Amino acid sequence: MTSSRRQFLQIAGGGFSAAWAMFQTRLLAQTIAPQPPLRLGVVSDIHIRNNGKTANDYTGGTTGTFRAALEYFRDRHVDAVVIAGDMADTGQVSELERVGEVWRDVFPDCKGADGARVEPVFVYGNHDRLAWRWGLRGDAAKNPEKLRAAKEKGIGPREAEAWKRAFGWEWKPVYSVKIKGFTFLCAHWGYEKDIPAYATAHAAELDIHASKPFFCVQHPHPKGTLFSYWGKGAEDGGELTEFLKDYPNAVSFSGHSHMGLTDDRSVWQGAFTAVNTCTLLQISTPYGGEWQCVNSRRSSNEKAYHMDATSRKGRQGMVMDVWPDRLEIERREFVLGEAAGPVRIVPIPANPTNPAYGYAAQSARTSAPGFPKGAMVSVVRRKGKNTKKVEEDQIHVSFPSACANGEKGRVLLYEIEALVDGTPVGKWRLAQELHFQPLNRIPTSSELVIGADEIPSYKTVTFRVTPVGFFHRGTPICS
Questions:
Q1: Per-residue pLDDT tens for 365-405?
Q2: C or N: which end of the chain has fewer Cβ atoms within 10 Å?
Q3: What's the rounded Cα separation, in Å, for the pair 336 and 260?
C-alpha cells in the first residue's frame, strides 16, 4: 500500500509529525492484519430531543451519546454508518437538524479522519415520521391553530424538505446505495413494503443475486424474524420477509424494539439473516403478557417499591466487519465504553435447512443459567416505603445472581414463587438487573421486594427462585 499525493497533502496541512505517525501506524496495522472488505458502524433509535432530555427524563438520547458512537466509528475507520430509524424523538425538524449537525461535526463532507468516504445509510422510523402529532390529544387535535403549528415543526408533513435541511442531500422513500461493491436497500418507515418492487425495477444495477451479502435497512423487524419483548408491534407487514426468503445472502437491519445486543435472539437466521440494531436510548426489559416483570412497567404503584428498572443504563451499537462468507459483529456498550460481549461470527449466506443462527441451533449451543454452588434464598421481613412513599410491612427476597454458567448461560429474569406445603400462593417475575451489560458488570445479587399483604399469612412460606435464560430454564433454589 502506498500513500497518495492527496493523503500526503492532508497530512502536511496540520501537524505533520503527529499525523504522519498516525498514518504509518494504521499502514502497519493493515499490513499485519487483513482488513475486511467492508466495515460498518450500526446504531438505531437515538431519539434526540430538543430539550436535552428523552423519554422518562432520561438524558441518554442527547447528542452526547450519539456523538460518542460516531467518534468511535470514526476511530474504527468504518466505511459506512447505518442508523435504522427513530432519530428525532418527537418528530421535530429541529431534532433531525441536530442529528445532521453532529454527523457533520464528526464526518465533515461525509469523510473520516483519513479523508476516505464514510457513507451515511439513514432511514426514518415511526418517531421521525409520526411523533409530531402524538402530542395532539383531545381538543388539541381538533384545534386548527395547534394543528397548523405542529405541522410547521413536524418532519412528517414535510419529510423530504426536513431531510434536505438536516443532511443536505435528497430524500427518497426507498433508495439504494453501493458501498465497496456491497448493495444496501433502504426504506423509511411505512415504505418497507415497497422494497420488493424497487428491487425488481432496479434488478440489473443492484446485483443482489450474487453470493456475497447484501443488506436491507428499515426500522421495524421483518415479520416472523427477531423476537421482541413487546410482541407483534415491532414487526412490519410481512412483505419484506416474503421478498427476502429467496435470498439466503440477504441481511436485514432493524431497530424499533430496543432489544439489548447481549440477547442471543438479536441475530436470527432462517431463509435469510436478520439483525437487531438495538438503541442509544434505553434497552427493553421483559414486559407484556407472560413476560411481565416487577421492575418493568408494573401497573400498580401502590405495591412495594420493587427494584428500579435499569434499562436506561443501556445504550448499544455495533461495529460489523463484512466478509464474503461471514459477519463479525462487535457489540459495543456506550454507557461503559466497552464491549458488551464477545464478537459474534455469523456465517453468510444462511443455510435455510440448518441455519447456524436459527433459534434451534442457538439453543443447542447455549446452556441454562446457573446459580453458584451452595446458593440459597434469603427472606427478611421489615418496614419499607412503597412507590407512594408510604411505609408498610414488606418482604425482601434476595439471592445470588445466576451468572455461574457465563456467556453461554446468561440469565434474563427470575421466576419467584411463594409456596405453602408445596402449593403456590404467589408468583412474580423479576428481570435480572443490567442483564444487557457485560457479565462482569452484572450485580452479584438480586432482590425482590413485595408488600407483606401480597401473600397470605402463614407460619411457614417457602420461596423458590428459578433462573430463566433466553432459551433455557435453570435449576431453582429455595429459602
A1: 999 999 999 999 999 999 988 777 788 899 999 999 999 99
A2: N
A3: 14
pTM over 0.90: no
Q: Which secondary structure element, helix H or strand E, spans residue 74, and what is its range?
A: helix 63-75
CA angle, 246 as apex, 240 and 249 as ends, to 5°?
Answer: 90
Contacts of 309 (CB under 8 A, 6+ apart): 285, 295, 296, 297, 431
Q: What's residue 142's pLDDT?
A: 77
The answer to the question of residue 56 being in a domain is yes
CA distance 314 to 435: 10
Whether 103 and 219 map to the same domain: the answer is yes
Asked if 354 and 448 sit in the same domain, the reply is no
Contact 116, 109 (CB under 8 A): no
Q: Sheet holding 462-468: strands in order across?
A: 423-431, 413-420, 462-468, 477-478
Q: Which domain holds residue 437?
A: 378-478
DSSP element (H, E) containing 12 = helix 5-12
Cell numbers representing residue 403 in the block: 451468572
Tell me which of 103-112, 244-253, 443-452 is least confident. 443-452
Read off the C-alpha cell for 31.
499490513
389: left (phi over 0), alpha (psi -120 to 50) or beta: left
CATH code of the domain containing 460: 2.60.40
Task: Say whether both 466 and 350 belong to one domain.
Answer: no
Report d(CA 435, CA 439) in Å as an integer.
8
What strand order describes the sheet that includes 267-269? Answer: 174-179, 182-187, 214-217, 250-254, 273-276, 267-269
